[in-house]
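Check this:
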Amino acid sequence: MGKIDVTFNCAEEPVSVTTPASTLHVSSPPPFKLETADFNSELHARPSIYFTGPAIVEHIAFMPLDGAIKEFHDSLKVDDEISVRVERHTEFVTVTRLRKLHSEPGRWPESDLTEDDFARLAGLYAPRLVCHVSILVLGDPPEELGPVLKSFDFGDTAASSIGGGSAQVCSDFRVRPDNSSRIILFNKDLNAHRLGRMVRRICEVETYRAMALLGLPEARRLAPLLGAYDAELVQLTNRNLSTPAHQHKDLLNEITVLSSHIISATAETRNRFGATAAYAKIVEERIALLRETHVPGFQRFGTFVERRFKPAVRTCEATALRLEQLSRATMHLLDLLQTRIQVEIEFQNATQIQAVADRAATQVKIQRAVEGFSIIAISYYLMSLLKLIYETADHAGFHFDPVIMLIAVPVVVGTVAITILRVRHALKGEN
């Protein structure tokens, strides 16, 4: 019986499976296997660029002007000693360009590309620059770090041993005229794979730090507005205690307008502040992965970043929390005012119902009085009818004793009274 070889592409290497031809009935895998393969491909997305030094790595992150990333595929181009990787994330696109150097330079290598060139590599037109980092990868760290840093025009520098002492990272976090910040990585004994991963982590620290700080301008913009909202909320709360019933509508309109402003500000900044919290978490994780140790005479790289980065993140978190608390307080004030209005409406309804009940009771009394007059009136008409019959019969020659008329009076009155009382009792039974 014939054999068929089926090859599956995996992350490491192809695996060949031999299956009898007669048992192969399905020509394509079920849909859920295709989805699983797509999820697995995410595990191998965005690999590092593996290299050995010396080299200069330029890492730039852009945000599209329309804020939309239409494609999520990565690309890698290698041309002799230069390699370029373009990665598309949810909100931004990064370009990482590695240029190998033949020897360790005595001064910082100048870039041979402008930011517009990097934007074209990313496939973007006039995007917003988020982050520009230049990392110079050199050999073993010097015994005296200060003179080397001074030769590269570094100011007050933070430095750490990373990777368990396998490398040393230094940066003064200053932004140069070309909008770039510079980092020196001294490689002691990292191989190509570990060096590539370490450089990637440093680039991610800077990129996600910059992305997280995009929420800070929003927090600063909202600061005076939130102060005004707080003052207005206090004023409306005090007015709620003293406002008479006929002015509740105006107060309700003002509270509704304030609530609308707060909800609008929350909706405008919710995604940005949420992204800030997420990016800050990634920065913390990447700094932890560096496995820093202290370099005598220098502040640690990760400590420098955290001490100056976390206050901005906490400002965004506090602004988001303040917006949420203002929204809850405004809704609570609305509920209180609506409760007062509802109680007053119920009181007015109860007053009206009581007035209706009083009118009904008065009508019942009038009805009972009318019933007494009705007995007299009906009896009078019946007696008049009997009198007419009596007189007609007398003229016709039929003579009756007048005592009959005297006896008929109480009989007629009693009969009418009993009839009316029975009708009223029947109506009460139905009700």
In short: Helices lie at 31-43, 115-121, 145-151, 192-212, 215-242, 248-289, 301-395, 403-430. The chain has four domains: 3-42, 45-201, 215-352, 360-430. Confidence is low (pLDDT under 50) at residues 1-30. Residues 54 and 138 are 5 Å apart (CA to CA).
